[in-house]
Amino acid sequence: MVYGDNRPYLVAMLTLDRDAAVKLAERLGIATDPVTIAGHPGVQAELQKEIDRVNDKFARIEQIKRFAILDRDLTQADGELTPTLKVKRAVVYAKYGDMFAELYEQPR
User: Fold this and answer.
1) Are strands 2-3 and 64-69 parallel, antiparallel or unpaired?
2) What's the predicted TM-score (pTM) here?
3) What is the pLDDT at residue 108?
4) Which helix (H) or strand (E) covers residue 65, if one does?
5) 20 burial class (0-12, 13-18, 19+ CB within 10 angstroms)?
6) What's the domain range around 93?
7) Exposure letters 74-92 (e unless 16+ CB within 10 A, then b)
8) 79 in the Ramachandran plot: left (φ > 0), alpha (ψ -120 to 50) or beta?
9) What does the pLDDT look like over 40-76, one tens digit per residue?
10) Based on the structure, what is the number of domains in the chain?
């Protein structure tokens, strides 16, 4: 989910496809639990490469500058998704506001 309302640049909160994350963890030789995968620098580096590739398709103002990896999926049960699996942005912004704020506090 991309965030940037009234901010100088865009940031994103990412979730990982479980199967792809496990394959990546095995390739990197790390534990396959979601918390380890989400916090591992090698995983972050792989995702940064993909974000850089995607950013090349957008104008500078539309590019994601920083991201965080959530160690779980967003769910309907937690009120983060609608019945049609759309993100409830206001709920997610409120729930993970600290995570988004941290992305803006990091040095550029």
Assistant:
1) unpaired
2) 0.88
3) 61
4) strand 64-69
5) exposed
6) 2-105
7) beeeeebbeeeeeebeeeb
8) left
9) 999 999 999 999 999 999 999 999 999 999 999 999 9
10) 1
